[in-house]
């Protein structure tokens, strides 16, 4: 497989953009990436877009506004890993020599979705368990229950990623929230699904993100930002879980464990030793806490100790979500999988200012999504490893 | 007379005047699954036996949702219930929140779980605390 390089990145600020359409958001992110790379939009040979709730042919609608047409384009849905899937498919196309350069986009407008469906908690439409009130917060609340029983996590431990990530968001100019929160403020905020309160949940957001990937030949030909170290997408894995029974352990989610292990094997890195920074799906604070061991940052069973040691914060062994994560950056579902790849890239380029992980050489971008009947949930993860 | 429907196709079947959760036990891999699908979700075999699932299970984990979800009003107590067949079922628990603990025994019951705006009663399953053999919810 050929090496795949990051040529440019772009995004809108995530937040409430009820006055903008998904096409407005997608075009803005794509234009930002094109301007970052300083290339013509006519260079693209293909485009993929991750989105869950956008209208039909969103990628064509957004990209024609930049004069991008007459190339194959696809919109892909894979729950919160939709953006990761767009990146993954483009990575495969370039890696296997089908194209030399393309755009991976992620777009979501939850304001538009809420106008249609209301703001209440929703499960996956038509799913048996969803009809019995299984939602994303209730799934992760039940995971937190097992974190407390099996790992001895305290409420302070469960709130820790939210405190850490809100603090990081204060100094990130791209962050939706720029406000630090305390343990007491988190626990005093309205309870959603015990023990998950509002301030342990990511906000619902509108936004888009875009990344330009290319082959080595095209990187050498087109790269104008020669001051930036070359960043490779060294591995990309989409992992999907299988049928569920009582042996299923929510603290060892198959999608996370296998996705991270396979991505590290492909990239030739050892997670606990080599990964310098992680940007991951922290839709819920306890979710991030549970993921440290699943992603291989520490041994199984040692995730709480890893958190308590400060290893996951800026200055620690492997900062997790130094951007502020979904908890501060916001979570326009389909866009986040692209955004985490962009944020890891910015870390490797050394362009994240106050949130920079000094000396970062290897980073992991992860997304996780989908809660369904009969399948080990969450059902899909996307894991990408970037290196310089 | 009000119209009644089952909340999800295949979730409950009538057997001897009783509503049961019908499981499928695969001849090839031995796993039991719910509801019954086209093929075994584990090994894709089509050979196996349908049989009603046990009505009593053990609570694996639970939560209390404090906001409305669809037709359900909070507090919504719900959890994953492990059955002796190896099946993990998600269901709501009709019980005093304080009495709900991991590891407790729960019994499946059926009844109206919500009513549509047109008056249609939607029938589903839920769980109640189970004390002793032959004894239902208190």
**Beta content of chain B:** over 45%
The span between the termini of chain A is 18 Å
Indicate how many domains the architecture of chain B comprises. Answer: 1
**Beta-strand content bin of chain A:** 15-25%
Number of distinct helices of chain B: 0
If you average the pLDDT of chain B, what whole number results? 93
Put simply, the count of helices of chain A is 14
What sequence of helices (H) and strands (E) makes up the elements of chain A?
EHEHEHEHHHHEEEHEHHEHHHHEE
Give the C-alpha Rg of chain B: 16 Å
CATH topology of the largest domain in chain A: Peroxisomal Thiolase, Chain A, domain 1
Please identify which CATH superfamily of the largest domain in chain A we are dealing with: Thiolase/Chalcone synthase
Briefly note the structural class of the backbone of chain A.
Answer: alpha/beta
Describe the structure.
The complex is a heterodimer of chains A (388) and B (138). Chain A is α/β, with parallel strands linked by helices and 388 residues long. Helix content of chain A is 37%, strand content 18%. Chain A contains 14 helices and eleven strands. In chain A, the strands form three sheets. Chain A has a five-stranded mixed beta sheet. A four-stranded mixed beta sheet of chain A has the order 8-11-10-9, sandwiched between helices. Chain A has a two-stranded antiparallel ribbon with strand order 5-6. In chain A, α3 packs across α14. Chain A is globular and about 55 Å long. The two termini of chain A are 18 Å apart. The mean pLDDT of chain A is 96. Chain B is an all-beta fold. Chain B has one domain. In chain B, the strands form three sheets. Chain B has a six-stranded mixed beta sheet, with no helix packed on it. A three-stranded antiparallel beta sheet of chain B has the order 5-4-6, with no helix packed on it. A two-stranded antiparallel sheet of chain B has the order 2-3. In chain B, β10 (105-115) and β11 (121-129) form a beta hairpin. The chains are: A alpha/beta (388), B mainly beta (138).
């Amino acid at each position: 497989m050929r090496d795949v390089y990051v040529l440019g990145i772009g995004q809108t600020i995530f937040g409430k953009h009820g006055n903008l359409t998904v096409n407005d958001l997608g075009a803005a992110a794509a234009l930002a990436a094109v301007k970052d790379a300083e290339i013509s939009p006519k260079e693209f040979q293909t485009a993929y877009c991750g989105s869950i709730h956008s209208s039909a042919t969103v990628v064509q609608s957004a990209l024609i506004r930049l004069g991008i047409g007459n190339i194959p384009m696809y919109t892909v849905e894979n729950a919160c890993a939709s953006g990761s899937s767009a990146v993954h498919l483009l990575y495969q196309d370039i890696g296997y020599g089908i194209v030399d350069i393309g755009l991976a986009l992620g777009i979501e407008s939850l304001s538009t979705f809420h106008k249609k469906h209301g703001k209440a908690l929703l499960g996956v439409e038509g799913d048996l368990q969803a009809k019995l009130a299984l939602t994303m917060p209730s799934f992760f609340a039940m995971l937190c229950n097992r974190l407390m029983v099996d790992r001895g996590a305290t409420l302070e431990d469960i709130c820790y990623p939210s405190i850490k990530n809100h603090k990081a968001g204060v100094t990130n100019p791209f962050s939706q929230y720029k406000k630090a929160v305390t343990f007491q403020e988190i626990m005093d905020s309205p309870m959603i699904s015990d023990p998950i309160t509002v301030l342990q949940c990511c906000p619902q957001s509108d936004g888009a993100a875009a990344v330009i990937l290319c082959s080595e030949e095209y990187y050498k030909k087109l790269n104008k930002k020669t001051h930036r170290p070359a960043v490779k997408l060294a591995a990309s894995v989409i992992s999907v879980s299988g049928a569920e029974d009582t042996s299923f352990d929510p603290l060892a989610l198959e999608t996370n464990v296998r996705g991270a292990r396979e991505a590290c094997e492909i990239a030739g890195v050892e997670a606990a030793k080599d990964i310098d920074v992680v940007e991951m799906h922290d839709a819920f604070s306890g979710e991030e806490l549970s993921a440290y061991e699943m992603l291989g940052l520490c041994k199984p069973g040692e995730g709480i100790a890893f958190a308590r040691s400060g290893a996951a914060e800026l200055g620690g062994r492997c900062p997790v979500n130094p951007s502020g994560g979904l908890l501060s950056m916001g979570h326009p579902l389909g866009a986040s999988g692209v955004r985490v790849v962009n944020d890891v890239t910015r870390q490797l380029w050394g362009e994240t200012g106050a949130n920079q992980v000094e000396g970062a050489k290897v980073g992991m971008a992860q997304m996780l999504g989908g809660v369904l009947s009969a399948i080990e949930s969450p059902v899909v993860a996307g894991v990408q490893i970037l290196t310089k | 007379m009000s119209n009644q429907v089952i909340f999800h196709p295949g979730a409950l079947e009538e057997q001897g005047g009783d509503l049961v959760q019908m499981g499928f036990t695969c001849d090839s891999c031995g796993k039991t699954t719910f509801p019954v699908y086209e093929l075994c979700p584990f090994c894709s075999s089509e050979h196996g036996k349908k049989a009603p699932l046990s009505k009593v299970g053990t609570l694996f984990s639970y939560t209390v949702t404090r906001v409305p979800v669809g037709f359900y009003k909070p507090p919504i107590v719900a959890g994953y219930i492990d059955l002796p067949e190896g099946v993990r079922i998600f269901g709501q628990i009709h019980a005093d929140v304080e009495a709900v603990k991991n590891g407790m025994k729960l019994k499946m019951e059926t009844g109206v779980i919500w009513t549509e705006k047109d008056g249609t009663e939607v029938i589903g399953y839920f769980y109640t605390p189970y004390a002793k053999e032959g004894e239902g919810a208190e």
